[in-house]
Amino acid sequence: MDNSGKEKEAIQLMAEAEKKVKSSHSFFGGMFGGNSKIEEACEMYARAANMFKMAKNWSAAGNAFCQAAKLHMQLQSKHDSATSFVDAGNAYKKADPQEAINCLNAAIDIYTDMGRFTIAAKHHITIAEIYESELVDIEKAIAHYEQAADYYKGEESNSSANKCLLKVASYGAQLEQYQKAIEIYEQVATNTMDNPLLKYSAKEYFFKAALCHFIVDELNAKLAVEKYEEMFPAFSDSRECKLLKKLLEAHEEQNSEAFTEAVKEFDSVSRLDQWLTTMLLRIKKTIQGDAGDLK
């Protein structure tokens, strides 16, 4: 059957499901198995949704899953309702990001009500990603990553919580919320430095925290680097720490050539990503008379 055939069949199923729901509300329908009619309607909506998916009509699929979710709620099957809302969200993701968020939020409400915080956190991340890539609303993405991190922490899933918090810190710094970013980087670095498997990441987080300090105030950065070396002696030998010291020296002498040279040397061994480049440019701009590039 081709896509248009699938779509026709799906539309027919939707109409039949609606009829079932209406007849379940009637006096006789209510007396004679109203609930079983609603269950049948649920099944029909789900089948219609899958046919719409095959026909790549994502909005119609999302809508059909939504109808099923509402009926499951009426039948008090919370788990099935939440699952259908998630299915609806995933379908809408391809056509209507805002509607996808609404469905995922509906699922989250049910999951948190049931005490299923880990799965709620997972859906908060999906919403955050939609805000990142589709709707480009970074403030809202941050809020959902923070909520996910809270739920993960409550469930003792610390590494999942840290992943979300690092996203918050990274975006926070981009939005010039340096204090927030510093607190997170320091906290995550402190949590990871005693873990033999994660120890190497700690130096990266201390490095990022120091850069955020540096943008705000050179002296703060200097003190922060000293503090990190004391807390985590392995930091002293890292290339990141050596770079910070060279940058601090260049900044103190207001020498933008030396600053650029140190960055270039570091970059030749480990490539700077977009975030680090942005932060280093912001620091470099605080050197008097600098044009603010890293060339």
TrEMBL record:
It is found in: Membrane. GO terms for cellular component: synaptobrevin 2-SNAP-25-syntaxin-1a complex; terminal bouton; vacuolar membrane. Signal peptide: none annotated. SUPFAM superfamilies: TPR-like. InterPro entries: NSF_attach, TPR-like_helical_dom_sf. It holds the Pfam family SNAP. One of its GO terms (biological process) is intracellular protein transport. It is a peripheral membrane protein. GO terms for molecular function: soluble NSF attachment protein activity; syntaxin binding. Keywords: Coiled coil, ER-Golgi transport, Membrane, Protein transport, Transport. Residues 128-195 form a coiled coil. PANTHER family: BETA-SOLUBLE NSF ATTACHMENT PROTEIN (PTHR13768:SF12), SOLUBLE NSF ATTACHMENT PROTEIN SNAP (PTHR13768). Required for vesicular transport between the endoplasmic reticulum and the Golgi apparatus. Belongs to the SNAP family. This is N-ethylmaleimide-sensitive factor attachment protein, beta b.
